[in-house]
Write a structure and sequence with these properties.
The chain is α+β, with helices and mostly antiparallel strands and about 130 residues long. The chain has three helices and six strands. The radius of gyration is 18 Å and the shape is globular.
Length: about 130
């Protein structure tokens, strides 16, 4: 999929192996397009879509437009490559929120504080200009 920043087609979902233990109502998708628009449920009722796929070289995620946007209720699939994540974190265009696998202690907490500091700095500089 194309990165929303650099516009390069370098973020790719990995299709699950045919012998995957995570079964869905559908057969495992074989094409990137199938993975990007996949919308099914596991036998336990949990959703299966691109948000919980293995992705190479970046992030692919479904985002929701909230109230106030001209796109209220719309959902979009976006991708950002690892290189652009790094670049956009450094100038606070992208903000670090946390890590869902590890709490907000230690390294993660430090990264959150660094992101807040960069955000405040950039925001203050923008107001001066």
């Amino acid at each position: 999929m194309y990165c929303i920043c650099c516009k390069k087609n370098n973020v790719t979902p990995n299709p699950p192996p045919v012998s995957s233990k995570i079964s869905t109502e559908d057969s495992p998708p074989q094409h990137e397009e199938d993975i990007l628009w996949k919308d099914s449920k596991r036998p336990d009722g949990s959703l299966v879509n691109v948000n919980n796929e293995m992705i190479d070289n970046g992030i692919i995620h479904i985002i929701d437009a909230g109230y106030g946007s001209t796109h209220d209720g719309d959902q979009f699939v976006i991708a950002i490559c690892d290189d652009c994540i790094k670049e956009n974190l450094s100038d606070a265009t992208l903000l670090y929120y946390g890590n869902y696998m590890y709490g907000s202690e230690g390294f993660i907490g430090d990264e959150i504080e660094k992101s807040k500091q960069k955000y405040r700095r950039r925001n203050s500089l923008d107001k001066l200009i």
